[in-house]
Structure formats: C-alpha cells, structure tokens
Structure to design on (361 residues):
C-alpha cells in the first residue's frame, strides 16, 4: 500500500473526509498517437480526464463476470509458505504486486475483471499478507527483506506457478519489486505497469550528508529497542489503519471496513511487527531511476495526481526514460489507484497487455 516515505515513519495526519456525490466517475482516455516503447521519444504524457455521469450510462466500468472464480492457494518457496490468488484460464499472464503493508487482497477489484480475458495472479510477498514472516534477526547478518529478495521471489513464482512469461502490474514499493525482477531475469517479464511507484524519498542517498547519521540512529532505535514495538502497536490498530488509508485515498468513500480489515488482520499475525520495523529501517537498495535504464521490456507509468506521499511532480520525470512508453496521470486519485479507481486502472492494464502480448522477449 504505502511507501516508506515520511508519512509511514511518523503518525500520519488525517485528511478531512471528503463529501463526494453518489455518482460514478467514468474515464475519457485522451491518447496521443502510440509510439513504439523502445524508440527514442520526447516525453509524452497522457491525461485521463474524469466526468460525472449517471451509473446507468457508465461504459468504462467493466463489472466482473459471475463465472469468474478467484482461487486462493499456497506455494512453497524455499521452505516458506506463500499465499497467492489466481483466476482466469486463457490469455496472457499477469502478476499483480502489492505495496508496503498490503497484500493480494488489495487487488480484489481488479482480479475478477482482468481474469475474463487473462490469467491473473496476485501474490503476497514474503513478510506480508498471509505469507510466512520469518524473523530477519534469525536469517543472518545480511538484510533479508529487500527488493532483491522479493524480485527473486517474483521470478521464481513465474517459473514455478505461472509457468510462463507475465506482465507485472505493481503498486508503490511493488513497482521496485517488479523492476528488480525484470532486471534480474529479463526473459520472464513481458511488460511492467507502475502504479504510483515509491520514489524512496527516505533512501540514504537522497538525504543530506549531515542528516544521515541521525537517520541511522533513529533506525537503530526502532530496530533494537522497545520503542520500535511500541511504534508498531500505535500503527497496527483499526483507527490508525483507517486514518492512514484516508490519507492516501483521495476518495475516502473507498476506505471501507472491508479494506481496513484486509490490511489490518494479516498485520496482526506473529512476525508482522519485525517485518514492519525491518523494512521502514531499510534505506539502502535500488532506486527506480537506477533500475529503469536497465529494463528491457516496455514500461507504463500511471500516477494518481492526488498522491500525498509520492508527488506527481516528481513522478513525471520517469516518463523520460526510454523504456517508459507513456506516463498516465489519473486526476483526483491517490496513492492506490487500482483499489480507489479500478474503473480507470483496469482498462489501462488490459490495453497495455493487448499492445505487448505478442512481443517476443
């Protein structure tokens, strides 16, 4: 869900709840002439404008078919139990990758729709959701919860479970997981869609030199003293989770009790606190701007323009990379577009996959 920006390292401010109409937003896609992803190009930005219409006339919203059944399974990865969901038995494969603190349930509004014409998988990264949460202190001196670990997990999942090439559809830190996986093994990923990818603003290299020792000291305080567990206890409550979600969702009517439960419950499982503290203290590893030049497959960057954690003004720079075919702005949408505005995101996913489904890796 959220990235490790400043809002996840301090108690977030609760945005006032918006009083929205009961009308359903639909999208009008204003597309420029498509330019092949791997050619030299100027920075092209697509805007997705919204209008308010009666629910009966909405065409962008594609309801899930009653025939689509979403299965929940487990996969043994290096001795660990990994939970995943899947649906659909025809078409290109897609793997949906969640963000920090979330899990495969965060794609519940996408899986049934996409599965009508695709094989769709959604995975709980190790340490999150209902996957195993090994204690990082018992796994040696090297960090375990890293993008290299999750990238390896994603590639192995495609080899062992999907048994095919796949599109990676990623939100927040899941975007770095997808990029890392694609760089590690370019033969697996057919394309990556990045939804509000984490900018990693707390990465150590993005801090002034004089502030780095202070950051390290604060991380040691969280990781090695009771302060960290106390901090986690203040975050892992229904009220705190709801407040965080209301901050990152621009349309707060989408912050339902179902959504709060889907984030909170696995976060209360044994080991979740250790994973949480380990990752918020992880300020090394790759940055998106380091991985994007190495990616060999097409990339589509999508950004909710009301994201309070990952400002779109900074995200637009990713549209300049040669591997990025388009930058799509979603007006009035926050940090988790796939859940807040699935009626906008699902058609973009389908269109992206259709353009590159026959591409040879």
């Amino acid at each position: 869900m959220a990235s490790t920006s400043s809002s996840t390292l301090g108690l977030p401010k609760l945005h006032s709840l918006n009083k929205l109409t009961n009308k359903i937003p639909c999208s009008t896609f204003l597309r420029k002439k498509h330019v092949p992803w791997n050619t030299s190009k100027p920075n092209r930005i697509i805007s997705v404008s919204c209008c308010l219409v009666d629910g009966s006339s909405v065409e962008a919203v594609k309801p899930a078919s009653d025939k689509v059944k979403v299965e929940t399974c487990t996969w043994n990865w290096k001795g660990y139990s990994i939970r995943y969901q899947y649906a659909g038995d025809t078409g290109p494969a897609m793997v949906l990758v969640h963000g920090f603190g979330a899990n495969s349930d965060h794609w519940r509004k996408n899986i049934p729709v996409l599965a009508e014409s695709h094989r769709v998988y959604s995975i709980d990264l190790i340490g999150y959701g209902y996957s195993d949460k090994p204690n990082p202190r018992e796994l040696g001196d090297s960090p375990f919860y890293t993008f290299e670990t999750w990238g390896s997990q994603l590639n192995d999942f495609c080899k062992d479970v999907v048994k095919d090439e796949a599109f990676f559809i990623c939100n927040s830190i899941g975007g770095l997981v997808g990029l890392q996986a694609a760089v590690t093994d370019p033969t697996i990923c057919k394309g990556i869609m990045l939804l509000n990818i984490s900018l990693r603003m707390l990465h150590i290299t993005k801090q002034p030199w004089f502030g780095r020792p202070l950051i390290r000291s604060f991380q040691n305080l969280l990781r090695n003293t009771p302060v960290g567990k106390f901090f986690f206890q203040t975050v892992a409550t229904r009220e705190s989770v709801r407040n965080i979600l209301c901050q990152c969702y621009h349309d707060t009517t989408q912050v339902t009790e179902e959504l709060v439960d889907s984030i909170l419950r696995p976060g209360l499982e044994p080991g979740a606190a250790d994973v949480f503290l380990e990752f918020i203290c992880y300020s090394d590893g790759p940055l998106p701007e380091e991985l994007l030049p190495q990616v060999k497959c097409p990339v589509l960057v999508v950004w909710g323009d009301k994201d309070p954690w990952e400002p779109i003004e900074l995200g637009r720079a990713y549209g300049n990379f040669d591997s990025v075919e388009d930058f799509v702005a979603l007006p009035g949408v926050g940090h988790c577009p796939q859940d807040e505005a699935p009626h906008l995101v699902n058609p973009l996913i389908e269109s992206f996959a259709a353009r590159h489904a026959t591409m040879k890796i």
